[in-house]
Batch of 4 targets.
Target 1
Amino acid sequence: MKTNWKAAIFDFDGTLADSMYVWSKVDEEFLHARGIPVTQEYTDAMRTMYFETAAAYTKETYGLLETPEEIMQIWLELAHREYAESVRFKPGAAALVRKLKDSGCLLAMATSNNPYLLRPCLANNQMEGVFDLICYTSEVGMNKDHPEIYLYTAEKLGVKPEDCVVFEDIIEGICSAKKAGMHTIAVYDPANEAFREELKETAEGFIESYREMLDEFPQ
């Protein structure tokens, strides 16, 4: 597998971090408190949305009284403790990131998450300051079924798209990164089991664990 990229762009939730369980809990707590069941249709719709879009979608879908801003604040408070104390990087993820950095590769994150959750999580995983850049989908105003977040991140890094590799766990992210002209590696996450074969067929590489890639780099 090619590893001499100039830049590596990582998604966070479900890709670097074992964190998808947090959002399942948040959805359940938030909707159940309002007497609303969590449906597969809702879960699927939320997969690629950035925070602001997801809040507006939830308000509109269920006719909630809260504003999107109030919904986002509730979600953040429900998720914060888990991110600050419990969410961990996937096995081998931190080691691979550090090996890439040692090899001279620029490192970025392109995420739909929020700094309020991400920063304490990085600190708790001893990964503060490791990434050269963190970009949020809210900065480009588009979800991950569009390539803009990846192009924006590459531009901020000062690297051509064809010199970047994108690590993603969702098929929409892989497809958008390919549209951006970037190399792609799909990372398995149980939350996306239904897309396993499509991810394998679409991405240049597919890994069950980051440990599979560690031997690609010199000690």
Target 2
Amino acid sequence: MHRHALSDAQWERLSSLLPTKRTGPKTRRGDRLFLDAVIYRLKTGVPWRDLPERFGPWKSVYNRFANWSRRGLWRHIFESLQLDVDDEGSIVDASIVRAHQDAAGGKGGSRPIV
């Protein structure tokens, strides 16, 4: 299994949301590898042309992605996977903002304010 690939549990959840009716030629590599290619590109930020060869021709992956976008399939998938949000919730933020060591004062340390 590759680093950016879907797990079996994720694939099970997604597979029922994918279109069953095909509009173009049958794909040789399958839906799961196509979704892995899209996820790989989104996580790494590589251009379409730099997709690894294991995903097949980059142009085929791009064309299928663009077709799904035009048909609204991505919107359908994202809306189906969206979590229900309750009215009450909490936000936990664990970020820390630290000043750079040079922000402690100028040369010779800080001077007291009188």
Target 3
Amino acid sequence: MNEEAVWLAVYILFVVSVAVAVVVLSRLLGPRRKAPGKLTPYECGVPLREDVPGAIRVRFYLVAILFLLFDVEAALLIGWAVVHRSLSEQPDFGLLVVFEVVFFLALLGVALVYGIRRGALQWD
């Protein structure tokens, strides 16, 4: 085994042992006071209301997924546009790069059509 692998193993062993030591010491030395309010849900210091509104509609999650989908698309297309010229100068590689982007945009188009058919963009 070379020297770098030995140091990597020592480092990994050190990191794992520190994590285990912190958890064990916290469990052994930490306070164990049971209070009735300790197990109640807590959010931002605001007391809970008894009249909780209904569940969030699934449509909000679908809109969030569509937003993430097209946000990632924009980030990938910007990166592709920056390196497109250097990639297309290589022989027999330019057409492959363009095909990959067209395929990616076609998949996004299918996702958009699916979202429209599911009614994700209609607010009743």
Target 4
Amino acid sequence: MDALIDNGEIKQIIVVTDAGHGLETGAIEAAKKAYDAGITVSAIGINNPQSNSKKGVQVVKGIAESGGGLWEYSFIEDLSKTMQDLTLKTAGRTIKQAVGRQLKAVIGDEIEDLEPKSKTKIMDFINNYGENINLRCIVVFDVGESMGDNPVIMKKSVIEMFEGLRRRKGKSSIAVIFCTAENSGTYSTACDFTSEVYTLGQELEMIYPDGDISSGSPILKACELMHRYYEV
């Protein structure tokens, strides 16, 4: 249907950050490269009183806008729900944009230009398609002061978010990458793609693994991880 919907599957990167350190460098440019490669990038900012809130909003918003996604701010205790909601909203918007482009090409009208009955049918189709489409998601954690001392929060948030996504009819799979304040500009793949909650939980037990630490952009690493799956 669309470059962002490949074989009935939507590819997403969700960046979770307090915008306080390493991820900021090149993140907006990296998000644009991901979007150009058919991967939508959304961003969630963590409310952190110790960080520069104005600067943080600019970074979070910039990542999402460059990545063709959505952005949101969240308290740490609401992170799992925010991730789940943002993932589904982003998927819905991706489908709506794809359908809109198809309509424009065929009949020359936008969805908003349709008469009410036809518009309702199109929106019902989009909602139903969103419930059944497969989602492949990579969560990138930019671990700063707001989360760095409590990896349990990250693990719990990802698992709860994933459990919510798996209640859909479509298949969901997830991978996790994190970078830390202690090693600014470095990242590690905490969990490769899985569709099983148990496997995800086991992998995230090693959320600070020794070794496998790389430098560069974790967003671009997420793109490589996504493309490696599709090549296989």
